[in-house]
Amino acid sequence: MTTAPSSAVDPFATETLLDPFPTYRQLRDQGPAVWLKACGMFALPRYAEVRGALEDWQLFSSAGGVSMNDEMNQKLKGGLLCSDPPNHNVLRKVIERPLTPRALSVLRERVTTEAENLVERLVAKGTFDVATELSPYLPVSIVSELVGLPEEGRERMLEWAPANFDCFGPINERTKAAFPIVGEMIHYAFNQCVPGKLKPGGWAQMIWDAADRGEIDPAICPFLMNDYMGPSLDTTIFATTSAIWLFAQNPDQWAIVRDNPSLLPQAVNEAIRIESPIQAFSRYVTRDHEIDGVTLPAGSRAILLFGSANRDERKWEDPEGFRVMRRETNEHLGFGFGEHQCVGNNLARMEIRALLVALTKRVKGFELHEMERGVNNVLRGIKKCVVSVH
Ligand code: HEM
């Protein structure tokens, strides 16, 4: 056994979050498992080990929580994200019911029409902010309506959802500031997201219906609300904005997808690979485990750096390049992998693709005027992205 390489860098410091890639490279070069002194946790920065950990849920457990602090892990306990099989399989069956490709096929026409109308309006304006005018529209209008939560909380959702993700980080100023906001979201889940207040036939009501049929314990229902509220907004919104930002900087790649829109699903994967909206979650190590001679002791926590794995030069040729024709692009870990692979990925792909299809029909190119990144402990994304289109 050798001592783990260790690093003094804090991947959750503001300046690192704004540009994490030099730090990721440094960590990858140090080894497959690096002790982060600032966090008191291991980081897994390379593709092979992150994917290996996602595949081995017995060893890298989610039931101990996937955030990087105990307080949040306690709050999320029992939801889909923070459970292991066999319990996870039961919950997943309920949550994924409206999200399977078959269930989603009934939405395709509506999503397409809304995307076409929105893009038509924005293209007519000529200049617009992708981050606020284009990307949030489908998640906030269609998806929120389908989930069917009571109206009064919906307008707070865009504040609650990123706060929820800030609380996935280790305890720092951002986490501390976000906890009271997450407290409001949890209060709303327990007090408002209950039968009688939810839209009949909506996804949230379907969770309670599953409890009525005895599929799940009713006590777990408020925790499961978070599985639709937390991850269905900013992830997709950030992925959409990042995709347009990448195309604005890589006009040759836009020309390729305009000529051949059948490459758009691959382009969506490539945008999520290179700008992974969720950069990191963690796992609880259930027994002593050795990686390249380094022991991760039982009870330690390993941070899975999706954003770093997706740019690992050991896996990807020209990892920093945005290349829509990259063959292996569907192997990215931006949606996770294995048991917990994103249950909403088909919906997210449908939303992003519909907007890009509508844009390929009307836009030859983008000119970027302004860009400002948001800062979040685990999310990566752009909060202002003003472009003009021609
Ligand atoms: C581009 C958009 C999205 C990205 C990048 C993304 C990313 C991820 C990732 C990385 C995971 C794996 C977590 C882990 O292994 O611990 C995950 C899980 C999950 N996502 Fe997404 N997500 C997106 C959109 C959505 C949407 C639209 C929904 C809901 C409608 C959703 C709901 C979930 C849920 C419930 C889980 C937990 C699955 C489980 O534990 O079995 N996500 N997502």
Walk me through this protein's architecture.
The protein has 390 residues and is α+β, with helices and mostly antiparallel strands. It has one domain (6-389): Cytochrome p450, CATH 1.10.630.10. The chain has 19 helices and eleven strands. It has helices at 14-18, 21-30, 47-55, 70-76, 87-96, 101-105, 108-125, 130-134, 137-147, 151-154, 157-166, 173-191, 203-212, 221-229, 234-249, 251-259, 264-274, 306-309, 345-362; strands at residues 6-7, 34-36, 41-44, 60-61, 127-129, 280-285, 289-291, 294-296, 301-305, 366-373, 382-389. Strands 1-2-3-9-6-4 form a six-stranded mixed sheet, sandwiched between helices. A three-stranded antiparallel sheet has the order 5-11-10. A hairpin with a 2-residue loop joins strand 7 (289-291) and strand 8 (294-296). Helix 7 (108-125) crosses helix 19 (345-362), helix 11 crosses helix 12 and helix 15 runs parallel beside helix 19. The protein starts with 5 loop residues before the first strand and ends with a strand. Protoporphyrin IX containing FE binds at residues 54, 62, 66, 80-81, 92, 95, 227-228, 231-232, 235-236, 239, 272, 277-278, 281, 306, 334-336, 340, 342-344, 347-348.
- Domains (count): 1
Ligands bound here?
Answer: protoporphyrin IX containing FE
The CATH class name reads Mainly Alpha
Reported by name, the CATH topology is Cytochrome p450
Shape: globular
What percent of residues adopt helix (DSSP H or I)?
Answer: 40-55%
Radius of gyration: 20 Å
Number of helices: 19
Strand pairing plus helix content: what structural class? alpha+beta
Strands in their spatial order, largest beta sheet:
1-2-3-9-6-4
Low-confidence stretches: none
Q: What's the N-to-C terminus distance?
A: 60 Å
Order of helices and strands: EHHEEHEHHHHEHHHHHHHHHHEEEEHHEE
Describe the sheet with the most strands. 6 strands, mixed
SS elements, strand count? 11
CATH architecture: Orthogonal Bundle
